[in-house]
Design a protein that fits this description.
Distance between the termini: 47 Å
Radius of gyration: 27 Å
Largest sheet: 7 strands, mixed
Bound molecules: iron/sulfur cluster
CATH topology of the largest domain: Rossmann fold
Strand order of the largest sheet: 3-2-4-5-7-6-12
Number of helices: 21
Structural class: alpha/beta
Number of domains: 4
CATH superfamily of the largest domain: Thiamin diphosphate (ThDP)-binding fold, Pyr/PP domains
Shape: globular
Number of strands: 24
């Protein structure tokens, strides 16, 4: 029995208490989607977690694709074959997928297809906070944005209707708050699936210049068509006092914050909530601005709605005062906070600032808790060995080229092994560039999932261009940071079926790399020796540090009732602090002038017992203390 079963079994009219992402998974079932594809990424990951669990029972084909571009291509192929498809990703995944999306906008779809982007204002788990509403403008595609879990489910179905009517993929944008907000959702009927007859003329899906020249005009006219449909009425809501001097235009999470602030201040102002951003609901917004001489635009990240409002005011000659980001009133970065919005409203309405609204007073001192590698994480052994090898070989000024995944935590103390980190798979390309641009020794880190996602072309490029770099592939047998999803290197296939894994060793060998070694990062001596050998090599050398994610092993041990813990023997501990200073397992802490291990955190990996970590053999398996 899966915790997600109710998402599949709930009957029309039932209420479920769902995360936005869980509601989207239910919307996928209610819409009658045949095929869903993704590459996992926070804040979109839970949609995949649910669909992966229930796909078999639901008769849905679900795929963790190798990257977002392939996920989009796969979903598009389903669509042109007459099957409804849904593809979802985090916002930066759209950059990877954009090449395919831009062409699909031109060729159009067969059966309905929706592309979800989960944006991350304030960058809780991302390298940037790009506003993907702009992708819809760039591609000339419709974009729908819900504000809560109920809308997330219901608007998703509307997105599929628009896609069916216009033969275009529809972009569905959430943000972290909408995806991770939990609320009561009334569910609807789950639609039966059927393959649709798609009659496509020859060349219909061929994005050759001669075809695309015509397709562009069709694309523009389809977007104009949507502007004239009643979808805009379904997705745009007006509430509050239509006679108010001020009016508010808002969307997404900014709408929720604005409503809370208006309620808190007891203000009865008319609010126009936009659930469709592209094509912009021009007539509705222009009419709204005609009625309210002062309009406040609340949105997160970029001034997309505000820019459209200002352009409409100019187009229709409206005398309206627009307040937003472009006049410096709302911030240009990050999420809106309730305190900031309250004070903005107070300022506009001359209500006097509430100093306490913008700051949270916490009565106790909270210690800093920087992100750390888990106890027992195999990456700790790899970073420890690399740092030691660099020191032993007296490599001065090394460049550490890091990548996206758990191992990006190698940037923190005590390892500090990230000089540069850009995007998925970039570590190898950047390392290769460093080797061309300087004589500095460069070490690139990449995870198994990221290697498959976007690292392989970088490795081929490095070998082809005779770079001098060490690549460390940190293979923990899972896509760990987003919730331990499978990848092509794991024995469970992307579609949830058992299948043969793709061997990273074989892929590396096939590129022509002439130095490659696979090591166990729990064996510090073996890893250190291999890294030193690799660093002495003059071309592209590759170390594959292979050991499963500690959480996978912990979960298995829990099921088997296996419990191994380590402890510090106070008789032997000299207080040298080598373990906490250079290895820094979070299960260790300092008590007085000695080190102690928290048995609740220790996962029994035993790596700290090795002399590189504890030269005095003071760390022993619990129960063995004092035995030696
Ligand atoms: S055995 Fe040592 S390194 Fe491993 S989790 Fe326990 S304290 Fe940490
Ligand atoms: S390395 Fe060993 S001896 Fe030194 S502080 Fe840690 S446990 Fe004690």
């Amino acid at each position: 029995m899966s915790p997600y079963d109710s998402i599949l079994t709930a009957k029309s009219g039932d209420r479920l208490f769902l995360l936005g992402n869980e509601a989207i998974a239910r919307g996928v079932l209610e819409a009658g989607v045949h095929i869903a594809t993704t590459y996992p990424g926070t804040p979109s990951s839970e949609v995949g977690d649910v669909l992966f669990e229930i796909a078999g029972k639901a008769g849905l084909k679900f795929e963790f694709s190798v990257n977002e571009k392939v996920a989009v291509e796969s979903a598009f192929a389903a669509s042109m074959s007459g099957l409804m498809s849904f593809v979802f990703m985090k916002h930066v995944g759209m950059n990877v997928a954009a090449d395919a999306i831009m062409s699909i906008a031109y060729t159009g779809t067969g059966a309905p297809m929706v592309i979800m982007t989960a944006d991350d204002p304030s960058m809780f788990s991302s390298q940037n906070e790009q506003d993907n509403r702009i992708y819809a403008q760039l591609a000339h595609l419709p974009l729908i944005e819900p504000s809560n879990p109920q809308e997330a489910k219901d608007f998703l179905k509307i997105a599929f209707h628009i896609s069916r009517d216009e033969g275009l993929p529809v972009i569905f944008r959430t943000t972290t708050r909408t995806s991770h907000m939990r609320s009561s959702v009334v569910v609807g009927e789950i639609q039966e699936r059927h393959r649709e007859e798609i009659s496509a003329s020859p060349g219909r899906y061929v994005a050759l210049p001669s075809n695309s020249y015509r397709y562009k005009e069709t694309l523009i006219s389809k977007m104009e068509e949507i502007s004239g449909t009643n979808y805009q009425d379904l997705l745009v809501t007006r509430m509050g006092n239509p006679e108010s001097l001020h009016g508010v235009i808002a969307s997404g999470e900014a709408f929720n914050i604005m409503m809370d602030s208006l309620k808190k201040l007891g203000l009865d102002i008319e609010v126009l909530k936009l659930g469709i951003i592209n094509p912009f609901p021009e007539k509705i917004v222009a009419e709204f601005m005609q009625k309210h001489p002062s309009v406040i635009v609340a949105e997160e990240v970029d001034p997309v709605i505000e820019t459209a409002c200002r352009s409409l005011a100019q187009k229709y000659g409206l005398s309206v005062n627009i307040t937003g980001k472009l006049d410096g009133v709302f911030p240009m970065s990050h999420e809106l906070s309730p305190g900031a919005v309250e004070n903005i409203l107070r300022e506009i309405l001359a209500l006097g600032r509430n100093e306490r609204a913008s700051t949270y007073q916490i009565s106790m001192e909270v210690p800093a808790r920087p992100p750390v590698l888990c106890p027992g994480c195999p990456h700790r052994g790899t970073y420890f060995a690399v740092k030691r090898a660099v020191k032993m070989l007296r490599i001065s000024d090394p460049v550490y080229s890091s990548d996206i995944g758990c191992y990006s935590l190698g940037d923190y103390d005590p390892f500090n092994e990230a000089t540069v980190m850009l995007s998925m798979g970039s570590s190898i390309g950047v390392a290769s560039g460093i080797s061309a641009a300087s004589d500095r020794r460069v070490i690139a880190f990449i995870g198994d999932s990221t290697f498959f996602h976007g690292g392989i072309p970088g490795l081929i490029n490095a070998v082809h261009n005779k770079s001098r770099l060490l690549l460390v592939v940190m293979d923990n047998d899972t896509t760990a940071m987003t919730g331990r999803q499978p990848n092509p290197g794991t024995p469970v296939s992307l579609a949830g079926q058992y299948t043969r894994e793709v061997s990273i060793e074989e892929v590396v060998k096939s590129t022509g790399v002439d130095f490659m070694k696979t090591v166990d990062p729990y064996d510090l001596k073996q890893t250190l020796t291999a890294v030193m050998d690799a660093l002495r090599h003059d071309g592209v050398s590759v170390i594959i540090a292979k050991r499963e994610c500690a959480i996978l092993r912990d979960n298995r041990n829990k099921k088997l009732g296996v419990e191994v813990k380590y402890t510090v023997n106070p008789e032997k501990c000299t207080g040298c602090m080598n373990c906490v200073t250079n290895f820094a397992c979070p299960a260790m802490s300092i008590s007085g002038n000695r080190v102690v291990i928290d048995p609740n955190l220790c996962d029994g990996c035993s790596v700290c017992t090795q002399p590189y970590v504890c030269p005095f053999q003071a760390i022993e398996m619990e129960g063995d203390a004092g035995a030696a």
